[in-house]
Amino acid sequence: MNRGKVPPQDADLTNSESLSYKIAETLAGIIRQKPNCALGLPTGRTPLHCYRILREWPEFLDWSQVRCFSLDEYFDVEPEQTFGHYLETHLYRHVNVSRSNVFTAVQYDNYDELIGRCGGLDYILLGIGRNGHIAFNEPGTPLDSWTHCAWLDESTRMANQEFFGSLENVPQKAVTMGIRTILSSRRLALLAVGESKRDVLNLAMTGPICSEVPASFLRIHEHLEVLADFDW
Ligand code: PGA
Fold first, then answer.
1. Is the dihedral of CA 114, 129, 139, 224 positive or negative?
2. Given a cut of 70, is residue 4 above it in pLDDT?
3. pTM tops 0.90, yes or no
4. Ligand 1 pocket, mutate which of 19, 41, 46, 201 (most atoms under 8 A from CB)
């Protein structure tokens, strides 16, 4: 097994693939440096390419001690519609992560305490919703929020209806890491893919820091990396 180096980046990757490669490399570096690191992992369309890269590297990366925390999870959905299933399908089953090191908030009364007992999160990768949400912290979520149940915005439900066949099948409720949970991570990366995220990313990174645009709270963090496949 060659755990010294990840394969070089393909020369003809698209811009978003290239950013995903960069994140995958960062994750690989963190895992190498701290084999039992704690990661906060997103779902949705944004991280798909990053997970694709990571699962092509099983022989380069040892996940056996890595702790993986999903950022959020739906309530009241079929097992194959859960984010746990998504992460299992797109990442976990392809790498040597131990299932005893995989955590999701629906299974714990106090997710934040669990994260604390694991030594805190080392790195969270985030996408951004078109309404400025991060994880399922919808507009209006206060800065001082820890893991909590959240009602989903209509715009979030609409954005995710393709995964459920129709809007009425999209759940109304989820559990999500709060803004404080996210900000307590040692490092954060926000990845925005696609023109539809341009305006909201601009607003989050240059407008007022406020609960109407939850992603704006990320600017409080000292170690935030923002990656977008468009100029903003
Ligand atoms: P997406 O969702 O990656 O499917 O665009 C991002 C989000 O809602 O956080």
1. positive
2. no
3. yes
4. 46
